[in-house]
């Protein structure tokens, strides 16, 4: 703003005059722009809320667009003996499973092959071995190397795209007994493809074994304790072996989880519609609109599009109906009854609804061309324009105040000079008298 005007020469408070003039200018020219900006920021906040709610609805829709999304099951395990069933195996159920029951016996767990070296007195000094060992096609020279060096070299081979799948570690049996242990990372009878050096420095500590088990009396083997291909959609994780114990596995559809999935969709849908309804409310007595998007045609179109899509799927016989305000009501009992009568047909109905709604919601929320995205961008552009106008107006007012300040300074100096001349003249006249 420059120097302050104190009015020393004239005795007049020019600074207060300037401050008052600035206040008038800002109130007349800047405040309306600030008010417009505040309004647009409210509009922007409202559209961002719409975007968030539509995204939540899209997420709920994507979670039920495929029949696999409703492959939800509960499992129970029971043991024929005092042995805890989960100490023998646990179960994970996924896509492709079906309601079923199986009797399982675990006779043998899969084990990883382990090799041990002959004993040496130090892990850091040369082991005194010579020749070459071959691990999964990789040669390792032994000459002059310590167990520590061999451990590092073998583990380095277990990296990258051609990793050996073999881990080396050092076992200290006593202060004078150290051994190099080679362990396969994979369970199973295939074990480690290994060729010893001429000195025969390694022997089998644990042989690799396949898992052996029966399902409903049918004997099976697998190279891993994680069984993914015996029962469709079911993963068995074997933990213990006990041929004398039968574990009964029951798989049932988790209808509660299926209902919760539909309820999540209904809640997300209603959140969108409730917010739009709030925007369109009007209090005739107070003459106040419910929200800053009152009467917005794009917002009304959004509501119509999602309502029309849901209505077209005719879900009223499957537990989903419309209320008077356009929100959905979910009758869990009616939905469960529809599942019991025609599970596949009911799920197909909701798959179709989800797929159709996803098309609509993708069009609304697309990060580049979405309807809501464009609305948000338009409002942001308006706010940027208002910021530019406010800045330009502030610059204009600053320039005007600087011009007035210079004039006031000149005026104050002129008055000061005039007062000085008057005082001199007065003194002269007094001396003549």
Descriptors for this entry?
flat; disordered N terminus; alpha+beta; cell projection; four-stranded antiparallel β-sheet; cilium; 3 domains; 433 residues; FliD_C; Flagellar hook-associated protein 2; five-stranded antiparallel β-sheet
- What assembly state would you assign to the polypeptide chains in this entry? single chain
Share of β-strand residues: 15-25%
What Rg is obtained from the alpha carbons, in whole angstroms? 42 Å
Helix content: 40-55%
**Basic shape:** flat
Mean pLDDT rating: 90
The overall number of domains is 3
Instruction: Characterize the largest beta sheet: strand count, sense, and whether it forms a barrel.
Output: 5 strands, antiparallel
Low-confidence stretches: 1-5
SSE pattern: HEHEEEEEHEEEEEEEEEHEEHEEHHH
Instruction: Report how far apart the termini are.
Output: 49 Å
Alpha-beta classification: alpha+beta
Number of helices: 8
How many individual β-strands? 19
Going across the biggest sheet, name each strand in turn: 1-15-3-11-12
